[in-house]
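cron nightly-structures :: item 1 of 1
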Amino acid sequence: MSKFTADPVLIAGAGPTGISTALALGARGIPATIFEADPEDRDRSGSRAIYVHGSTLRTLDKVSPGLAGKLVDEGLVWPTRRTMWRGKKVFERTYDNPGGSGDIPHFSSIPQETTEEYMLEAVDEAGIDIHWDCAVEAVDTSDDGVRVETSDGREWDARYLVGADGGGSTVRKEIGASFEGDQSDNSFIIADIDEVEEDQWPLERLFHYDDPQVDGRNVMLVPFTGAWRLDIQCHEDDDPDELIKDEKMREFVRTVMGEQYEENVSWVSSYRFLQVMADTFVDEHRRVLLAGEAAHLLAPFGARGMNSGIADADEAAGAIAAAIGANRPTARDEIELYAARREAAAEYNLKAAGTALEYLQGDNPITNLRKEAAAVLADYFELAGEYLDDAPYGPHTAPPIVTTGNY
């Protein structure tokens, strides 16, 4: 096996978290090398993480100036929120300036595939190497550094490794971290619906509780660049494999959006959302840091997944930069501080997303009574409708730590 002394930092995974880590390290003057198990022409179809928070845009612009502007220019900011309850409108609000008054808006609604394209351009411009078709297969750490074996038959020595290799993370398994949590009782159908030129659906985010047109399932509709995200919460006894078949999806789309959209389903999938977290974000020698989905998987409510992964990436880069410039005891402290901060953030996000998931699954009779009461009162009190509009995204309490963003 060939041996190589690599850049000071190795990164497993070329998704948004891994790429952001490399950019954040580069901004701090630290070279990094990325290993990605998939080929360069990998299939990245599906909109996936479409909602990029303003705090995330600011982080990306800090580590790669101009990147946020590209995501803003390519994305869109929808102005209207509308919520329905069993066929009745209970809330609607249109903002005169939904993105805010700054150069970076509150959010950008853009498919993850496009976000990654711009990120990869930034990596190329920064001269960061990505080894495609090159999976991390083994990790060995010591007080002095980390050795990584990759699927192309090479060994790499470095000072630190960031595991950003997703929910099935080899890096996480190699450092002996466990990955435990819960799974949603309900399945969810997620589909991308291409925009039409005529008779377009209003530019709004729609949430419909117990939509009678789709047999009482919850429905969400969110616009992004060139298309729409349609989410449908299945009943517990639904067979999602049957519901995502072409004929049934056309029926769903025709019912929710109109017949002009029914032939425009470009991608569809179904999930049971996981709520899991690694029991440690670092190895025993403090040479490996887990980030993104290698460290935590979250239900999507509040759009915490990719956004929290990018926050992990920036803090991992900051911790490594501080550790590289410190003596050994202090270096360990910097990595341990990363773990403490991001584990606290992950716990916060898991709790918030879990609260939203419990709310939507409807298992709690007290929560169900609150929803019923709010739906009745919404005709008279705007706050009741606003509660129904906002609650599916989880609580908005302050994060447990001060980070580069809220997540």
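cron nightly-structures :: done
Residues 161 and 260 are 50 Å apart (CA to CA).
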